[in-house]
Amino acid sequence: MSETSPQQGAESICPPVDLSGDAGWVPFDAPSLVGESLRFVSGEPDGNRFRVRYYRDSEQHLHARIWFGPETEGPPGHAHGGAVSAVMDEALGLAAWAAGYPIVVGNLNISFRTMLPLQKVVTVESRVVSAQGRKVMVHGRLFCGDAVYAEGECLCITLPGR
Ligand SMILES: CCCCCCCCCCCCCCCC(=O)SCCNC(=O)CCNC(=O)[C@H](O)C(C)(C)COP(=O)(O)OP(=O)(O)OC[C@H]1O[C@@H](n2cnc3c(N)ncnc32)[C@H](O)[C@@H]1OP(=O)(O)O
């Protein structure tokens, strides 16, 4: 009988992945801006769920380099739509914070364009496209090379008194 059951094998930690940014990107320290609360997506940087690093480019746009691990599985071998949505929620909301708006997300509209294979490193790029009164609109897409996996439109609402 084998000493390692399939279940034990599934619990082993996946090897390190390369989450380095593009040339000219500067690492972005999210906790120093918004505190330590973002554990759902960012909380286990060496775990088997999400591994994420944030960067800003020379125009101060926020980018995320993200690995979807085996614990994000939905359809066999591919990421759960909720996992993709969680990443878009955090990355696009954080983009508004990084642009100077203290917000929560009021509405998030995600289009899932292509199924995302597990254990793939992808990028989320974001743009704050408008800010009117308390409403800040952020657009983003999750992609790798020419493959676009999801696009998002995120209405953020500023928090009074912050
Ligand atoms: C205590 C917290 C500290 C946080 C400090 C650290 C945070 C660190 C964040 C890190 C980065 C983020 C990453 C994760 C982002 C999330 O996941 S946030 C969590 C998920 N989001 C939520 O739980 C939000 C729940 N909703 C709410 O709290 C409230 O509905 C809101 C959004 C604050 C708005 O409520 P409100 O302040 O009473 O404002 P309200 O008058 O209803 O709306 C203001 C305007 O926005 C419009 N609006 C509001 N909601 C919507 C909507 N869903 N659709 C369309 N329009 C809307 C209204 O129509 C209104 O428009 P006008 O009439 O002015 O034209």
TrEMBL record:
Q: Where is the Thioesterase domain?
A: 77-146
Q: Name one GO cellular component term.
A: membrane
Is Cell membrane a UniProt keyword of this protein? yes
Pfam families the UniProt entry points to? 4HBT
User: Which SUPFAM superfamilies does its entry note?
Assistant: Thioesterase/thiol ester dehydrase-isomerase
The enzyme's E.C. designation: 3.1.2.2
Keywords carried by this UniProt record: Apoptosis, Cell membrane, Cell projection, Cytoplasm, Fatty acid metabolism, Hydrolase, Lipid metabolism, Membrane, Transit peptide
Q: Which InterPro entries match?
A: HotDog_dom_sf, THEM4/THEM5_acyl-CoA_thioest, Thioestr_dom
Q: Where in the cell is it found?
A: Cell projection, Ruffle membrane; Cytoplasm; Membrane
Q: Which GO terms describe its molecular function?
A: thiolester hydrolase activity
What domain of life? Bacteria
GO BP of this protein: fatty acid metabolic process
The family assignment reads:
Belongs to the THEM4/THEM5 thioesterase family.
What this protein is called in its record is Acyl-coenzyme A thioesterase THEM4
